[in-house]
Amino acid sequence: GQIIKLEDYLPADFVIHQVDMTFDLRDGHADVLTRLVMQRREGVAAEAPLELDGDELSLTSLALNGTPVSPQNYTVAPDSLKIDDLPAQDQFTLEIGTRLHPEQNTKLMGLYRSNGIWCTQCEAQGFRRITYFLDRPDVLATYKVRLEADKAAAPVLLANGNPVASGDLPNGRHFAEWIDPHLKPSYLFAIVGGRLDVLKDSLTTISGRHVELAIYTEPGLAERATYAMDALKRSMWWDERRFGREYDLDVFNIVAISDFNMGAMENKGLNVFNHKYVLLDSETATDADYAGVETVIAHEYFHNWTGNRITCRDWFQLCLKEGLTVYRDQEFSSDERSRPVKRISCVHTLKANQFPEDQGPLQHPVRPTTYREINNFYTATVYDKGSELVRMLATILGEDKFRAGMDLYFERHDGDAATIEDFIACFAQTANMDLSQFALWYNQAGTPRLTVSQSYDAKAGTLTLNLQQQLDKGAAGTGTLPMHIPVRFGLVGANGQDIAAEAASDDARVSGDTIHLTTASATIVFTGLNQRPLLSILRDFSAPVQLQYEESEADRLALARLDPDAYGRWRALTDLVGDSLADAARQWAKSGPQTVSDTVLGAIVEAADDTSLEPALRAQMCSLPGETEIARLVAEDVNPEIIHTLRLQTLARLGMLGGETFRSLRAELAEPAGEFSASAASAGRRALRNCLLAPLSAAAGRPDDAAKQYAQATNMSDRMAALTVLVHQFPQELVSQDALTDFYNRFESDPLVLDKWFALQAASPNADTLERVEALLHHEKFKLANPNRARAVIGGLAGANPSVFHRADGAGYRWVCGVLLQLDSLNPQTAARMATAFRSWRSMNPALRQQAEAALRQLAASENLSRDLRDIVERTLK
Ligand code: B3K
Ligand code: ZN
Known about the structure:
The protein is an alpha+beta fold. Helix content is about 40%, strand content about 20%. Its EC number is 3.4.11.2.
């Protein structure tokens, strides 16, 4: 495929001032008539032709200024339309007719039908599947849209902007017209039509604008959008107060759709959502689902300013909207819930998703410089590391200057298609700082190693810290210059209080609780310390680095117990537990079975029982790292089989050691039935109670507790926690099979819950899982064309079941590649996303590496791979 390069960027030769579209929606096909008011940009050669993008399009008509264009003046193909002989400078109108077949559109890009509902997805390049267009984010226009459809088939007709007209047409048809007064790129275009239920509400913005809010769902489900609506209102309120951002249309519509390639889409005034991130109630959704809905609702809403009002000049700038918007949604959740708990869960996600990407063949900088398929760059690096960079900027500048920089960005670039340089320039100006070294974070791929060592001199009362940064060249081959790393820290006294540390000789590199490391190495001396303090380093995970710090077990145990900073406590305990498990796994591969020390496990029990901490935090502290996480820490020659056994045995020993404590905690934390609350505090109590079930059951070696909890569960969090223990720890027991059947019978007609049923079985670490999963593919409720269902089964196995995916005989790899090939012929984007499960294949032991490579090579040899899947497979093999 063709390689697109950032350095080749040029603005388009033509501008589009206005877009008018009419959609005639019918069963079997849709006719689209698009009228573009265009103009050659000043300075562009008069003979330069107009070249428009298309993708699998068929042209039905073409007129210039009202007159049909004669065939010798244009060249058309499904993926392009080229028109010669256009006016030199004057404005002209181009009318383009296209015929689409939404029912056959299984790629779910452009216009398609989901359970009969007409809907669109245009980011990144789906608009060109609707009409020929300059389909690039720097072409901004205002849009007017008219929709016509059968009134019974589509009583609801929605588009971007505000509704302006509607009415009946002959033959049982009707129409609706919408105008979006705001300039927007084509990727934010959307229409929806169908039989939909609606949950309505309204809100008055800070300056008094009345906004009608609506969430549309498939029939009968609107009530399940209640929590999403509440989250939307809180998001709108928060953005006004925290960032001074107000909503700018008379209506804000959300539509929940069953078939969707990702989480949701921020189309102007008409967000389209995967229904997973809208619909829930306590019986069908876990607390994690609630938190997910709140996050995604907020994220898409926040895009209205960071993404829509200010968009990206080109797709290389994707992190300009995504990293920033993730930062904003994380801040929202921190304010709405618990800040340390949210931070810990973000750090956890970053390490689980972004670190492996950064350390493997799919490595790329936060702002990439080349791509073959842009949809493959909606990655953890662009989103989550992108957010970390904004967070570092806020840390470096401080709250006030950061806010001033954001204000300037909104003011200066409203209505623009901007770049990372534009963004950074706003902060450089408001803070009066040179941020060119900081900007390296956007261009240099990889996770820097931060090596820290300390020595305490009792006589002098000094603590000397040495910090070094090192960035290795990885798959992306980008630069390795020292960057600006803000390192937050604390010096903790034996009483569990931070000691006010003075940096010797008013060291300019230390300000407040932050060391600004800008050189390859730095030595910093703290004075006036009459006792050796505990160093609480990289608090709040103030930079996305890999910390290498020789820290004694005693120091970690002490910090886990008395660091006044909650994140610091979690960090110390997690590093202790993670390193112990990784060491044991490495040793096991060499010399047979190993165990983690009782001291380490004892610290977990102690954290679980520490009532000075909120329950959600205790749950985070006492959950053992997952198998994939342990594999990441082992880093090379990984043996997933050993990790699986080691983890299960460690869980059992933890349950043994914590027995009494865990059981009484579970009893105390039990909620009286019928009193469900989705609040973060209640969710935290459920999280703690449920995370103790796994070690207790493993210790008992019996499914009784889990079976009892399953039978008595009154909410999905409790039910799922119990079912997971049953299916993963006791797959052969009758109670486990019965529970699975019961679960199916209860929720058979609920696709979102059924996804959990499929995913749980695919993630079950057992000898016969592959055979079971093969059977699931033939289950009557399995539908490969539905992304959520495909992700449940393929992702459950490839992403959440390491010991089966990495089976020694290679059968897991071959099975996944086989299904991906089938999926690719329907939905390339989702197939490519699932294929990233192979990204860490080189860290496996030699036998597995060989198996993985063989399976990938066979996949790569298939002739009809999509550009999406081929791009991932080839980069993974490189
Ligand atoms: N901007 C969309 C993602 C589009 C993905 C296209 N393959 C959702 C979001 O990040 O909010
Ligand atoms: Zn986004």
